[in-house]
Specification:
By secondary structure, the chain is an alpha/beta fold. About 35% of the residues lie in helices and about 25% in strands. The protein is built from 17 helices and 24 strands. Helix 10 runs antiparallel to helix 11 and helix 13 crosses helix 14. About 50% of the residues are buried.
């Protein structure tokens, strides 16, 4: 693409060189640069892309986008100076792929919990309605029926626009996309045209990155602030931050809830480990998902479908067929009556939701054995909260490793049990090895008991000291249940 066209809507401080050069590709990783490419120097928390300009040029880059003017400007190189290279990356990525978000109905889902489940359920529902759809999520990215492993909850702008471009090429009408707070803050979703934005909830998470809860809330809010006047903003009114999200949004406002007056309402009539009876829009519908949090997810999906002009009766019929997302309250039962539940819960709020749901369904004679750890190099403040909550709501708690990353597992466990009362400490068992921890839970379980393995969900690895080692909670559960 000609550079001039690539720079449409980009705020430029100054340019040096020829703006009519042809750009073959765009990169922000200098190692990937080839002949006639554009290199954009991003400034991050750990690395300054300006330090890699010379390397990019040596590999063939003909255009450099940067926030600092290099000391030496080469005659055969075009330089673009801009104050916000993250925003520039988002805009030129969209331009390079011919603005695909304007050619597809893009639905973005944000919130601490529920993002993955909602986009997955939306994909299931709309494909059942015979639409070609795409999905961008934590677990996988899907283009119509083609599935690709995902690396991040929300990819970088180049990947997002490349995926959207392929969806448009495949004649997808909808794309359902997770929108993380990191992606909003780092402007990965800037210049995307969202038809609908959804807010699920907000709780204590990612404060290692955002520093405090107010920054985290404001980051989520900015997603709705930037929705266009022809878009919809749908929020969970039962969350106390819901109306904050709508304060400055130009989009049409809609709400959903289980507990307060709203545009879309739902009530749980009954539930067990096999599913729930919900009352939505004055109709009773049995769904295969379990728990109040999943009632919110189902209601969000129903509300979105109605806003997108789908038939309510057809939606309710298909909602009953929707299945749980991988690693989200997945239930397994053994022949000897032990129930194992696999869930991705890795915040205190999510863990509370899952354990409270289990306690509502099981009887008082059934023990609940909870196995979980806390991730390394992440928000440390939630560690003791999660442990105290698990001990309060469980019969026995086995503390183990999650993804320690660069941290020592002993230090993580110390944070988890810090300040824990003696009555709770007596409920805990510490086993660093996750496989052994899960095995121990099964050895402690009797007929009718419930085992919750929380924190990693769909993940197929453990990250320890910079290395990812294959590890699958589901595989371990099936092995110990003897139901392979």
């Amino acid at each position: 693409m000609i550079l001039n066209k690539l720079l449409d809507n980009v705020e430029v401080i100054k340019t040096f060189g020829d703006l009519r050069v042809n750009v073959s590709s765009i990169h922000f990783d200098s190692r990937k640069v080839k002949e006639n490419d554009l290199f954009i120097a991003l400034v991050g928390a750990n690395k300054d892309g300006n330090s890699y300009i010379d390397k990019a040029i040596s590999l063939g880059a003909k255009v450099i986008v940067c926030s600092k003017k290099p000391e030496i400007l080469l005659d055969n190189i075009t330089y673009i100076l801009s104050n916000d290279t993250h925003k520039v990356l988002a805009i030129i990525s969209s331009n390079f792929y011919d603005n695909p978000s304007k050619k597809i109905r893009l639905i973005g889902v944000t919130g601490t919990n529920g993002k993955t489940s909602v986009v997955n359920l939306l994909y299931q529902l709309f494909t059942s309605l015979n639409y070609k759809c795409g999905m961008i999520s934590t677990i996988e990215n899907i283009i119509d029926t083609e599935r690709y492993l995902s690396t991040y909850t929300t990819p970088d702008p180049l990947q997002i626009n490349a995926l959207l471009y392929k969806m448009v090429e495949s004649k997808c009408l909808y794309c359902f996309m997770e929108v993380s707070s990191h992606a909003i803050d780092q402007k990965r979703i800037s210049y995307l045209n969202f038809k609908l934005g959804v807010f699920t909830n907000i709780s204590h998470d990612h404060l290692d990155y955002h520093k405090n809860l107010r920054n985290y809330i404001n980051t989520k809010k900015s997603f709705f602030d930037n929705l266009g006047k022809n878009s919809f903003a749908l929020v969970n009114k039962d969350d106390k931050q819901a109306l904050v999200m709508l304060q400055n949004s130009k989009a049409s406002h809609y709400t959903f809830s289980l507990k307060t007056a709203s545009d879309f309402k739902c009530k749980i009539i009954e539930h067990d480990f096999n599913g729930m009876m919900l009352r939505i829009d004055n109709n009773n519908v049995w769904v295969k998902l379990v728990g109040e949090f999943n009632a919110y997810n189902i209601l969000a999906v129903y509300s979105i479908a109605i806003l997108l002009k789908q038939d309510s009766k057809e939606i309710l019929k298909l909602v009953s067929l929707l299945s749980s997302t991988e690693g989200r309250f997945q239930t397994f039962k053994s022949n000897d009556g032990v129930t194992a539940i696999l869930d991705y819960a890795h915040t205190d709020d999510a863990l509370d939701n899952v354990i409270s749901t289990i306690n509502l369904i099981k009887n008082k004679k059934q023990k609940l054995i909870t196995v979980f750890g806390c991730g390394g190099d992440r928000d440390k403040l939630k560690r003791s909260k999660m442990t105290r909550l698990a001990c309060y709501l469980s019969s026995k708690v086995i503390l183990t490793s999650d993804n320690p990353r660069s941290e020592d597992i002993e230090n993580i466990i110390s944070d988890m049990v810090f300040g824990l009362e003696n009555e709770y400490l007596m409920k805990t068992i510490i086993i660093h090895d996750r496989k052994q921890a899960i095995k121990t839970a099964f050895s402690l379980a009797n007929e009718g008991d419930v085992i919750l393995v929380a924190g990693k969900g769909h993940e197929k690895f453990q990250e320890i000291k910079g290395e990812k080692t294959p590890f699958d909670d589901k595989e371990q559960i099936l092995n110990f249940l003897n139901i392979n």
